[in-house]
Amino acid sequence: MSPTPTSKLQSVQHGIVSVRSRRLRAIGTVLLAGILLMSLYGVFGLMPTLRASSKRVNESRAIAASQGTVVQSGTGVSTPTVVTPEMRQSRKLARALAAQVIFAWIYWTVCALLLVGLLLIAWLDFRELSRQYDNERIALFAEASAQAARHRSDD
Fold it and tell me: I need a labelling partner for 72 at 20 to 30 A (CA). Which of 1, 51, 90, 154 fits?
């Protein structure tokens, strides 16, 4: 008994999305969710903290510069007289800001690499889907030509 055209169509449509394609889509969904969460945290959590730290360092430098320098008359050049606690604090804050900037660069680099990975997964899924589609199309043409040959031999 030959299958009805409707059931044959359903089996073809079901066969296009393979197990590998479903797995790639699941991985892609997880990567997309991770990228979205990382981007949201980066924009609303990481970057404002970095801006606030930068502002604090600039304010600290201004305070340290005003308290620890003497302007020599005639030259207009300011030279440090002593290292004040404010200057030490300014240096510590500058090093902390540098560490935060390095962390932010690493964070956004990881986010970009995940995005590249997502594009790779999407390409692999497209390739798998195309391969499955070609296999199903070849099978349908082979079945159609076999049926045509049977009908010709029956006549």
Answer: 90
